[in-house]
Task: structure prediction
Amino acid sequence: MADKQTYPMISEKNWWDLRNQFKKTIPSNVNPSYVKSLLGFNSDDSARNNIILPLKQLGIIDEEGKPTALANEWRSDEKYENACKAMLTAIYPQELTDLFPDEEIDSSRVKAWFMDTASIGQSAAGKIANTFILIRTAKVKEPTVKKAAAPKNGAPKKKTRDTMPVPGAPIIQPQKAPTQDQSAGVVSPSVHIDIQVHISPDASAEQIDKIFESMAKHLYGR
Result:
């Protein structure tokens, strides 16, 4: 490894936005115009320094900006882990990967390592450490699942067990309403009955006649 080794730094958001775009279609060339249109950078220099340079360091694009074979593996969910391992081997020293062999990584320790070995400031070391951890963990980010929207006011509600009608059976809903006894000046309750009849569309004419005959017998004494 050279005395002044430089390491890639790319934000996690840009990493996944780029990868999602590569999954849709691999570009013929990753140039400043492509990066600005996709990620919203304002200048060519910003696009080069923040995206194009680290992609070249990682081996995802070549010196001319053309995607490599590694880019094709990087965009595949099945080959993503292998692509990350190839980047680790090509870029980072064995000492670093030996120090952090597990998936759970202390970012502050990684940052301190880069500050010490690369002789860089806290800000740059933090960005480089985050990129290393992103590649070291090699976990495909799951897409965000949107929650179903709550029903708007006035939407039909499901009937509960208590209000579910039984086909073919009359439903009696008694309602008591107070009445005024004019002679005694006392309020006494009276009974008001609403009857709802739900008949199955499969019922025959004879069955329908029997239902109303039964209602007349029991309700009106006929």
In short: The chain is about 45% helix and 10% strand. The mean pLDDT is 82. Residues 64 and 104 are 36 Å apart (CA to CA). The longest helix spans residues 122-137.
